Amino acid sequence: MATQIILSTIRRSNHNHLVLSILGILVVFGIGAFNLRYFTNVLSGPQLTGEDLLFALDNSEVFGRLMGYIGLGIGALMLAANSHGLFLALSYGDTAKHPISKRLARHGYLPVVVSQIENELAVPCWSHGKLHATANWLVYAPGADFQAMRLSEVVWLYKRVIQRRTYGIPVGKTFAAHIFDSHGQKIEVSAKNEQAVNAILESVVQAASWALAGYDKEIEKIWNNNRAAVVNAVNQRLQEAMLNEV
After folding, report:
1. Which pLDDT belongs to residue 45?
2. In 10 A of CB 7, how many CB atoms?
3. Which of 64, 96, 128 is the last residue before a domain boundary?
4. Beta strands 186-191 and 169-181, pairing class
5. Which of 237, 232, 245 is nearest to 209 (CA)?
6. What CATH number is given to the structural domain containing 211?
7. What range defines the domain where residue 187 resides?
8. Do 176 and 230 fall within a single domain?
9. Is residue 198 within 8 Å of residue 183, measured between CB atoms?
10. Where would I find the beta strands (DSSP E) of 30-185?
11. Chunked mean pLDDT (size 10), the chain, 246 residues
12. Which pLDDT score is estimated for 155?
């Protein structure tokens, strides 16, 4: 894999965020301009009373004005949401403020973490699609996102199979590998079939043999209520694995 993938991913994510926010704002203004006369009449007309609202369905004029108020409210919310998105995209010009950078910063001093991941990604140990393992890292880089966790901090992994139904009739299944680290971060890797998920999990288990493998309701219950207990148990397994290698 090429170096500078993290910076490129952040820039791609920021660009997509910026474009979508601008398009959203333009759509709101476009709809507003197209219905300007209608909204002007709604705002300039008499205020609706509680009695008007009760009988709105029986009065087409009142009902139309009520829908106008609702439309204005939805438009205002959309404008606020897209403006906020635009503000965030502009603030992410400082890549250190981007969510990807903040996630990576949990592993240590950001420039050092990024440098180590980039250098190791140049010679990955193995890859399954967008999932890559290096000497010390597990990296998932789908499109405009980037997730990384230290192999030494991988705690739990399992296969998830969801039966999809349409009108109660089974129409197929979706398969995914779920991988958790000691920080609670989850990497979810979708696959086209069960064999592909099994291959991913087997590779991760080989790289992090101390991690808990397989879904268990009791583990999930403890993980949700007392993650530290699971992490401590897995850390003990890691220490034992390291002693056996000496």
Report:
1. 55
2. 16
3. 96
4. antiparallel
5. 237
6. 2.30.29
7. 108-245
8. yes
9. no
10. 126-128, 131-133, 137-140, 147-150, 154-166, 169-181
11. 65 74 81 66 54 47 58 77 70 73 89 91 88 94 89 96 82 92 94 93 94 94 94 92 73
12. 96
